[in-house]
Amino acid sequence: MGYSGFKVIKEGLFGQRGWKPVWRDPDPKPEYDVIIIGGGGHGLSTAFYLAKEHGITNVAVLEKGYLGGGNVGRNTTIVRANYMLPGNSEFYSHSLKLWEGMEQELNYNTMMSQRGVIMLCHSDGQRDLFARRGNAMINQGDDAELLDPAGVRRELPYLDFDNIRFPIYGGLLHRRGGTARHDAVAWGYARGADQRGVDLIQNCEVTGIDIKGGVVTGVQTTRGAIRANKVGIVVAGRSGQVAAMAGLRLPIESHVLQAFVSEGLKPCINHVVSFGMGHFYISQSDKGGLVFGGDLDFYASYAARGNLPMKEHVMEAAMTLMPMIGKARVLRSWGGIMDMTPDGSPIIDKTPTEGLFIDCGWCYGGFKAVPGSGYSFAHLMATGNLHEPAARYRLDRFRTGAGLMDEEGTGSQHNLH
Ligand SMILES: Cc1cc2nc3c(=O)[nH]c(=O)nc-3n(C[C@H](O)[C@H](O)[C@H](O)COP(=O)(O)OP(=O)(O)OC[C@H]3O[C@@H](n4cnc5c(N)ncnc54)[C@H](O)[C@@H]3O)c2cc1C
After folding, report:
1. What's the rounded Cα separation, in Å, for the pair 120 and 292?
2. Taken in order 260, 264, 265, 271, is the CA torsion positive or negative?
3. Which one in 124, 180, 230, 375 has a CA-CA gap of 20 to 30 Å to 214?
4. Whole-angstrom Cα distance, residue 359 to residue 230?
5. What is the DSSP letter of 29?
6. Rounded to an integer, what distance in angstroms lies between the CA atom of residue 404 and that of residue 412?
């Protein structure tokens, strides 16, 4: 079923009876050409691009819960391409271009809103770093503008400009950055993959990976064994556990990241604002809720909820930056499990087992990577070759130490910064 303005009006006039389920609910077949483990944003976009770009449609996405119930439906929806280091720069640039064409490509309203991302700086050193980052973004072909304090005041008049501890020295504005509706992205890719013949199988947990003579032959699931010569692991916070089923130990720790939403308010925050020095960021959803968050909870966990001290820290940072927020009431908070790598950059690679591939390590920034990651991972699984924009995301960089991409300069303690 195609979506259009005409269809919406027609359904409105005739009692909304013509809508059909957006994807099928098939039983698993005994064998597929490709199995994708994980029905999050990255798994679904991988399946979509396998079908669309490579004509590989005998594919199953196996999801232990429901599609979009993981981090893809739990994040704060920020999309941007303001990375600095070679390796990340070209990847996120490619991903943002895919975002810009996504609604047309999927014929699905993902509510992509390029409202601009502003990162604030609070010292000379941080401003110099942002100038450098902005130059790297422009060299990559993306947009960046360095704002002085008056420029920040023009865009964000509601900030506390008299704060002694965090004086505002300026900001880095990335106009093409913004937000999109997270679960719509999952649904859009799911629908696109299903339309091309991919089987999306929910309530199907992978419990084992079958390997014979160093070659993958299929998976064991709660709905029986399924054979395939190619298997992709795309399970975000569960990457360590699922990789262990193939005897693979990953350089990943799973940590909790929390998010918060206020009651619905009239439009007051027009951008995504990031206050890195205080570990706080915020935007306003189309429904009016202020959507905000901070840093990781500082302990490894598989629980999708967070601790109270981190909540307090985020609220304090919010009040420091924009005291007016104290009048709003928080409606909800939740957590998601982040697959943290030591250098803060992801992995898209083959594994030592032939036919077994892995896409993980997106830390707390993998939503913006959903289209780029799926595109690059599908390329790798279909052709056996690394896709150029993602060619630095190799697993062996953690063994050799060569090619690490430490975007935040936090060394091997990235997940404790
Ligand atoms: C609070 C919060 C805020 C965030 N904010 C942002 C942001 O603003 N911008 C940004 O770019 N990123 C953000 N992120 C990060 C982003 O959400 C993740 O990096 C990204 O969603 C991870 O990829 P995914 O969508 O494929 O993961 P998921 O949606 O978690 O998909 C993985 C899927 O694998 C399934 N699975 C696990 N084990 C198995 C198994 N054994 N068998 C079958 N299925 C299995 C899970 O059920 C899950 O559905 C945020 C994350 C959180 C939690």
Report:
1. 15
2. positive
3. 375
4. 13
5. P
6. 10
Q: Which residue has the tokens 């990559």?
A: 140
3-state secondary structure (DSSP) of residue 243: helix
Residues contacting 4, CB < 8 A, separation 6+: none
The sign of the CA dihedral 72, 76, 82, 88 is negative
Q: Quick check: 38 and 233 in contact, CB under 8 A?
A: yes
Test site for ligand 1: of 44, 71, 72, 311, most ligand atoms within 8 A of the Cβ = 71
Quote the CA–CA distance of 232 and 218 in Å, as a whole number. 11
Residues in the chain with pLDDT < 70? 409-417
Pocket test for ligand 1, best of 182, 364, 373, 393 (most atoms within 8 A of CB): 364
pLDDT at 406: 85
Instruction: Look at ligand 1, atom 18, and give the residue with the nearest C-alpha.
Output: 366
Measured distance CA(70)–CA(46) in Å, rounded: 16
Structure tokens at 236: 């975000």
Q: Are 36 and 232 in contact (CB under 8 A)?
A: yes
Q: Cα–Cα distance between 39 and 48 in angstroms, integer?
A: 12
What does the pLDDT read at residue 417? 39
Tell the residue number behind the tokens 């008049």, with chain if given: 157
Given the structure tokens 């601790």, which residue do they identify? Answer: 307
Rg (CA), the chain: 21
Q: What is the pLDDT of residues 46-82, one digit of tens each?
A: 999 999 999 999 999 999 999 999 999 999 999 999 9
Q: Where are the alpha helices (DSSP H) in 5-62?
A: 5-13, 41-54
**How far is it, in rounded angstroms, from Cα 385 to Cα 322?**
48
- Give the pairing type, strands 117-121 and 272-275: parallel
Question: Cα–Cα distance between 228 and 218 in angstroms, integer?
Answer: 5
DSSP, collapsed to helix, strand or coil, labels residue 119 as strand
Closest CA to 250 of 42, 399, 111, 135: 399
73 Cα–ligand 1 center, Å: 7
Cα–Cα distance for residue pair 83/178, rounded to 1 Å: 14
Euclidean distance between CA atoms 158 and 155, whole angstroms? 9
Q: For residues 302 and 238, what is the distance between their CA atoms, to the nearest angstrom?
A: 8
187 within 8 A of 22, measured Cβ to Cβ? yes
User: pTM to 2 decimals?
Assistant: 0.96
Residue of 48, 75, 339 best suited for mutating to test ligand 1, as the one with most atoms within 8 Å of CB: 75
